[in-house]
Design brief:
Two copies of one chain form a homodimer. Chain A has 339 residues and is α/β, with parallel strands linked by helices. Chain A is built from 14 helices and twelve strands. Chain A folds into three domains: 4-56, 434 Repressor (Amino-terminal Domain), CATH 1.10.260; 61-158 and 294-320, Response regulator (Rossmann fold, 3-Layer(aba) Sandwich), CATH 3.40.50.2300; 160-292 and 324-337, Response regulator (Rossmann fold). In chain A, the strands form two sheets. In chain A, strands 2-1-3-4-5-11 form a six-stranded parallel β-sheet, sandwiched between helices. Chain A has a six-stranded mixed β-sheet with strand order 7-6-8-9-10-12, covered by helices on one side. The termini of chain A are far apart. Chains A and B meet through helix 4, helix 5, strand 2, helix 6 and helix 12 of A and helix 4, helix 5, strand 2, helix 6 and helix 12 of B. The first copy, chain A, binds a DNA duplex (30 and 30 nucleotides) through residues 1, 3-5, 13-17, 19-20, 23, 25-29, 32, 47-48, 50-57, 114. Chains A, B: This is LacI family DNA-binding transcriptional regulator. Chains A, B: InterPro entries: HTH_LacI, LacI/GalR-like_sensor, Lambda_DNA-bd_dom_sf, Peripla_BP_I.
Amino acid sequence: MVTITDVARHAGVAPSTVSYVLSGKRAISSTTRQRVLSSIRVLGYHPHAGARSLASNRSNVIALVLPLRSGMHLPVLMQFAIAVVTTARQYDHDVLLVTADEGPDGLRRVAASAMVDAIVLMDVELNDTRVPLLRELDRPSVLIGFPAEPDGLTCVDLDFFQAGAACVEHLASLGHKDLALLGAPPAVYERGTGFAQRTRAGFLDATDRLGLSGIAIACEEETDQVAASVHTLLTRHPEVTGLVVHNEAAVASIMVALAAHGRRVPDDLSVVAICPDEVAERTEPTLSSVLIPAEEVGAQSVTLLMRKLDGEIVPDASLLAPRLTVRGSTAALPAAHGG
Amino acid sequence: MVTITDVARHAGVAPSTVSYVLSGKRAISSTTRQRVLSSIRVLGYHPHAGARSLASNRSNVIALVLPLRSGMHLPVLMQFAIAVVTTARQYDHDVLLVTADEGPDGLRRVAASAMVDAIVLMDVELNDTRVPLLRELDRPSVLIGFPAEPDGLTCVDLDFFQAGAACVEHLASLGHKDLALLGAPPAVYERGTGFAQRTRAGFLDATDRLGLSGIAIACEEETDQVAASVHTLLTRHPEVTGLVVHNEAAVASIMVALAAHGRRVPDDLSVVAICPDEVAERTEPTLSSVLIPAEEVGAQSVTLLMRKLDGEIVPDASLLAPRLTVRGSTAALPAAHGG
DNA sequence: ACCCTTCGTCGAAGCGCTTCGAAAGTCCTG
DNA sequence: CAGGACTTTCGAAGCGCTTCGACGAAGGGT
């Protein structure tokens, strides 16, 4: 192994000088710096991470904590993770992947052993058991999602309230007056995952505000139950012409169920989904949708974390604006509608 | 921060004694051990990871390297990742997530800086640029997937050859004689990702061996192109009654396209897929399938890695046997078939 | 010519841990 | 009861790095 002493000897300087060249914490003359850098290159020197973290109290590693319930939609989780890693690297940090199945102890361990400098919590729930722990740990942290009491915590997420509203506004602009929301499974609402509720609130608020009729119902993920939900909705509320779907897993089944009911999309019924682009583009017709900007959320959370590590004060809540992409599943309501 | 010296003082022993209690590398009397352990608990001591890695040359961290092309199916990747983390924890190791977008340098960096003891490479391709680097690094490693020249490398994967064969055998056992394989997109075959080719080889070998007719064609992932492929297949080869699908992303579209052609599954056509269970269970009818045992592969790779870290010799190739689950998409060929 | 800065570099201490050799204590054996 | 063989614990060195104080050399003002 090549050590800083080897580099120093090769360059004819003191080890501390090499350290200062690398960290830039003191001025080093240009000629010396060049000599040191070239020695580093020649010898293929890489600082020993452990030694560095021992001496400097900084590991340059952040923890990325996966949610407790892996019921969460995996591809989106993965997109988050990739964005977090990529962004962290831009700040010269690495990422330690921590699962919650050790319980909160895993978090405590990586923090207390000085393995990580800071923490990103993914897919935070309203009553997340990891959150109290986070408060007692002294490490900077950022949450993706919102817990019940986010005071003093830094949280990042898509603005689901706005997302729900954006869907309503889009449908309203096309002339639709009778809207429905097919949301997450009932269990998700009960569990109190914030995003489902916030979407529903945004949906209801917007329909109210615009003087439209809006029905919000939960929706399971399994094909047959989806069919049942759709059946119930369409028979009880045949007047509905605009449908908002906030349930990635059920999207495909819902489209099938609508077809089975003889409702053509978008001719008879316009559909807007809140889901990743890839899901929206894999249906027939493609879905107008509000995407979950996983990359943006991941990148933003790391950026905030780095600012906190630098001692900056950052805003408590960062809500990323929804972006609605119009595709093939929404169309204007025909002028003469039976009503 | 609580250090080993604090613990030693509290327990009335030398720091080295505490260290030996923790590592078990020397015998410590039961009474002393109890005293030390209780001090550790009382003080809430966690060893400093950096100091430990500096002194012992072991970081107890392994690198998990994501594939270069994130085109790979993300949920499966995530399942791998979770399994790797969970298993690593059982061996008291943590996992550093490394993306390949820094190029091979990222790998070199984490290895050379002693940040990780060993490396797991996910989704290895036939001509993977990371593989030569792995050979020059001295760290133990395990690959998930097979490169073109796996000599001397430890590789783990589903046995795709057997998987292709298993699908054929299942269909054959139901009396089907004319089979087809809808595989990965052409680009995947060209790129040389081993698993696609191995499945095809297994499929063709088995049809050959059993004296069946077998047609293997590639298949894109987009809905309209899938429809075109299915159309071509069914019109050119109307005799086909058994279909093997090895393309997760296209599964749903294929089912739709078959229906559009008036082919009922499984009445007119039996379908077996090679895909994760969740995909197989979300179609109508549910799909008989060979699953990609992501958890098993992830766990197995870590287990092998740990054995290598302990200096054991492990087998070069670990092929996990396919397991076929019969669901609703396969049925016996009616005795009298127009042929 | 002198003192006072400023700049660039060096040397040494110390981060918290592991590990090796040795010391102290215990127990047999002859 | 001396001497060997263990057992259990200690002390100190050292892992590779950062950082702080200090020092010599230049430069500026008087």
